[in-house]
Each structure stands twice: as structure tokens, then as C-alpha cells.
Amino acid sequence: MNTTTLTDKLKTTQTDFLPLQGTDYVEFYVGNAKQAAHYYMSAFGFQALAYAGPETGLRDRASYAVRQNKLTLVLTTPIRANNEMADHIYKHGDGVKVLALRVDDATSAWEETTKRGARSYMKPERKKDNDGEVVVSGIHTYGDTVHVFIERKNYSGAFLPGYRPWNNPYYKPAETGLLYVDHCVGNVGWNQMNPWVKFYEDVMGFRNILSFDDNDISTEYSALMSKVMSNGNGFVKFPINEPAEGKKKSQVEEYLDFYDGEGCQHVAMATNDIVRTVTELRNRGVEFLKVPTSYYDDLLDRVGHIDEDLGPLRELGILVDRDEEGYLLQLFTKPVEDRPTLFFEIIQRKGAKSFGKGNFKALFEAIEKEQEARGNL
Fold first, then answer.
1. How far apart are CA 182 and CA 41, in angstroms?
2. b or e along 338-357 (b: 16 or more beta carbons within 10 Å of the residue's beta carbon)?
3. Where are the domains positioned within the chain?
4. Are 159 and 50 a contacting pair, CB within 8 Å?
5. What distance in Å separates the CA atoms of residue 32 and residue 353, rounded to the nearest whole number?
6. Separation of alpha carbons 204 and 318, rounded Å
7. Is 82 exposed, middle or buried (0-12, 13-18, 19+ CB in 10 A)?
8. CATH: 3.30.390.50, 3.30.530.20, 3.10.180.10, 3.90.25.10. Which one for 20-165?
9. Whole-structure pTM value
């Protein structure tokens, strides 16, 4: 099977029973939320936004929300043992728990998805404070990850009811040009990609817009398969990866082993100036994968004319790929946890709607070098 696009399906007239306005926030369960928030502020340029914890009446956890443009991260840690949050961290390490999706009607979103087979995580609940009302609901997806539906049209507060504005007057790191969530990638187990594709199709009304098999995503040693799921308006995209047979352990297998199950592999964050963003991030200590410099020897022959100078791309290790609608520039961090699990992608789209197929081989060979250094290849 070669790479397939399903553009014709996107043109099919169909009522969108789950209209999504985009990603509202991504919540991580972490061992120390205060320190994690500082990391994302100092290293990635996020700004302090809101806090919830014992001081706000939340007795079991502390949560820090940080924001940069339309990107909001929530770092949550339990303040006692023997609960779902603590168990999640013990099993998975720091990782993504919630992929929150903004909707106009959180009650309808829950009803429409649960009646189509979703397992409920949170029944619709109204949260109120002096700034208005937010309705939240949620369903389970792969592994221990959940989707929470956020209806905030009647709310004017900093983040959510139960949070108070959080402002550190002594520390305001400069932003780095990160804009919004481009896509979030999930890693699932052997032979589980197609069942989860069906879940997103049947339960959430998504469509499979791109498919990659082990002929597309393979190296001498390892392989994986991937399908990209998109909602009707294209605001939310969830690629889903599963392992494929290879001579050695693939990056998906390594993730599943160390995360101890299925979960979110990486969050792709968009920028309008990837050279500036990556330079800022690297200067703040964020480590990136590095492809061989030979990757750039015939780059312009492969992708054609690009607006950017090749020198800074080569120096920073930024990858380029083209599709029929334009080109994209992308770069991947090394894992940001001690376990080789979660990482981030920085992406700038210059018209391209794809995900960098032409970079797969160089990228995964770079990942394999890191796996080998860890003794996990």
C-alpha cells in the first residue's frame, strides 16, 4: 500500500455531529507541576496564566496553566498518593492525560459520542464562578488518555472556574513564536491502529485523510504504520501510529515499553518563523534531533524552490518536505522526559497539508541513533 489521500471523502456532504473549534488545552500529569511549569516557561516561552490547588479549594492536586498565543498547557500533580493521578504518573511517568477540545455545546458532544460507543470519562458538568460558566464533559480514547470537551462561550475568566489568575511579576520569559497545536500523535499497540481509526470515524466523525504503511515509514532496522485522522473542518488532527515488523525495535515499540501502554507520543506546535523559534528554543536548552548534513546536499533538488536560506536550516537541522499544495518545515525535539516517551515537533506550514513523508527516513534514522545510545534499538 502506498501513501493514500482521501480528499474526495472530505468533499462528501455530511452533517458534522461533533463540530470542533480546535484544541483548547493539553494537560500533562507530572511528578512536580510547579517545576514543570517553570520548564515550559523558561525553555519554551510560555507565560503564567492560572493556578488551582489547595489555596483555591482543590484538595487533591495542584495545576498550573501556561499559555503562548493559542497554545495552552496544563501541568497537574497530585499532592497525595493512592489516586488516579498518582497511579498514572507511577505507571507512565510524566505524560499527556487530557487532549481538551473546544466545542460550542459540551453536553451535545458527550451525548453524541457516548451514544456512538465512546466510554464516558466525565458526564456534562457546569462549573461556575464570578466570571461565568464553563460546561465540561469527556470520553476515553487510547490507553489512559482522554478527550475533554470544553464549552466556554459564557466565560470570561483567565482559564477555568476553580482557577485563579497566576502572575509572576518577577519572571516573564519572552515568547518563542509558538502559535497553536497543529496535531497530536498517538502511539497504539500491535494491530490497534485500525480499531482506533474506526473509533475516530464512528464515534467522533473524523476522516482518515492520509495513510502511511511500512514501505513509507521504514529504515534498515525498524518500521511503523500511521493513519492521520481529521475532524470535518480540519482544526483537529490526530495521527495514530502502530509498530510494524522490522529487524530491531521501532520507536513506537520503545515508547510503548517505557510509557507502559498506549499514549500521546508528541504534540506538534505551529510557528510562522521556524528558524527564529528553533534558535530561541535551542538557546534556552531544548535539545533537538539532528539529521546528517548530507540531507541538505540535494534538498533543493528534492523539494524545489523555498523562501528560506539553506544555511540556517542546515545549521539548525530543520527538515523540509513538499506536497501538491506547498511545503513545510519541521524539527523534532529529543524526549523531554527521562523516559524516552514524550517529545515535541515544531512545524511551519507554507501551504503544505501533509506531514513530512519525504523526511521519514532521515528522521527515523536520527531517532534510531538515539535509541541505540540508550541501548533500546
1. 20
2. ebbbbbbbbbbbbebbbbbb
3. 20-165, 177-374
4. yes
5. 37
6. 34
7. exposed
8. 3.10.180.10
9. 0.92
- 247 Cα distance to chain centroid: 28
- Cβ contact 154:133 at 8 Å: yes
Helix (H) or strand (E) holding 197: helix 193-204
**Helix, strand, or coil here: 86?**
helix
Query: For the stretch 277-312, what's the b/e string if a residue is b when 16 or more beta carbons lie within 10 angstroms of its beta carbon?
Result: bbbbbbeeebebbebeeebbeebeeebeebebeeee
CA nearest neighbour of 281 among 174, 172, 167: 174
pLDDT digits (tens, 9 = 90+) for 202-251: 999 999 998 877 666 666 666 778 899 999 999 999 999 998 887 677 88
DSSP class of residue 288? Answer: B
Query: In angstroms, rounded to a whole number, what is the distance separating the alpha carbons of residues 332 and 365?
Result: 13
Residue, of 164 and 375, whose pLDDT is higher: 164
Nearest in space to 149 (alpha carbons), one of 159, 162, 139:
139
- Burial (0-12, 13-18, 19+ Cβ within 10 Å), 54: exposed
pLDDT of residue 153: 96
Tell me the three cell numbers of residue 53: 490547588
DSSP designation for 117: T
| pLDDT value of position 10 | 45
- Per-residue exposure over 55-69, b if at least 16 CB sit within 10 Å of its own CB, e if not: ebebeebbbbbbbbb
Please, what is the angle between helix 360-374 and helix 251-259, to 10°? 50
Distances (CA, A) of 228 to 111, 240, 246, 352: 25, 6, 22, 15
Radius of gyration of the chain (CA): 20
Architecture of domain 177-374: Roll (3.10)
Predicted pLDDT of residue 223: 73
Cβ atoms of 144 and 97 closer than 8 Å: yes
Task: Please name every residue paired with 77 in a beta bridge, in sequence order, or none if there are none.
Answer: 62
Q: What's the pLDDT at 267?
A: 97
Helix %, strand %, coil % of the chain (to 5):
25, 35, 35
Q: Say which residues have a Cβ less than 8 Å from residue 168's Cβ, sequence separation at least 6.
A: 48
Which positions ≥6 away from 281 have C-beta within 8 Å?
A: 43, 44, 45, 176, 288, 333, 346
